[in-house]
Amino acid sequence: MRRSPFLLALCVGLVGVTSGLSADVRSDQRVKFQLGGMLGKMVNMFSKGAREGVVSTVAVKGNRKATMNGDTSGQIIDLSEEKIYDLDLKKKTYKVTTFAELRRQMQEAQREAEKNAKEMQRETAGGGGAETPAQKDPNEKELDVDFDIKNTGETRTINGFNTTKGVMTITVREKGKTLNDAGGLVMTTDMWMTPGAPSTKDLADFDRKYAEKVYGLTVTGASAQDMAMAMAMYPQMKPALDRMAKEGSKMPPGTAILTEMRMESVPPGTANQAADALPAPEEPKKKGLGGMLGGLKKMAEQAEKNQNSNAKPQRTIVMSTSIEMLKLTTDVDAASVAIPTGFKEVKN
To answer: Which of 107, 141, 255, 340 has its CA 20 to 30 A from that of 308?
Structure first.
């Protein structure tokens, strides 16, 4: 399954569906993505590039978007054709994947993630015995989603742009209960906005349309398998992302030069605590989705160990992303989003 440099839309604010993509925009941007908690200790080893920051050139022209990662790899997405072209820039080859194939891969990853998450929950609840009652699905609870947005007045010069900081906070909690009483999830997005740069709205519009056609709601820098696992482990992420999609356009006008988002899992009684720091990067011992899912048992064993040692619940960072615009321009030609001359297709 591919790792995609997607989806800026949720981090700069989703707006209503537009009828077409007319303007052009090109951005040099640095994206960082990291998962936290027990999940992150394992999964982050599969996302080393994203953790350290991937610098890419992203261009949108019409219904095409091209992302080039230095001189090694690239990807072209065509919304009209509903195809994805993955480029090997050194070998001068490309592979084609349809949106339908990608949807199938995502669904398979989601099912596998949910299955393994449930197995881990059973083991942490009672050692995996057959008579252990299954934990109640958090999605079955009626939830309240609180929304707050502030212009802090803070200013900062980033990559030559004079920016002002806005903060969006979304809290998901059980209906009728406070965050401290019942726990929940908090998503905080810091956005450093400037009025003096080309708009990135077309990047956001494109990524939103791509998400609607293929993945649904997701987060910049996260691969399909990352999101499948995170959603299975933390179901409250979905209402938080839904609310962000609805309310994101209420952020102050302008272009986001730096967007930093973090999601925090808040157990009961920890609402006033500071979240645990993200785990330090580790070198991978086994790559691929199978290696990631295979590590769930070790995660369950560690969770059970913590439970047996009467460890106190901690507020933890579930996920964090950072998107920094290094350069923005509206100078985009057709060649910027086309397969380079001389490249040959390689069949999957």
So the answer is: 141
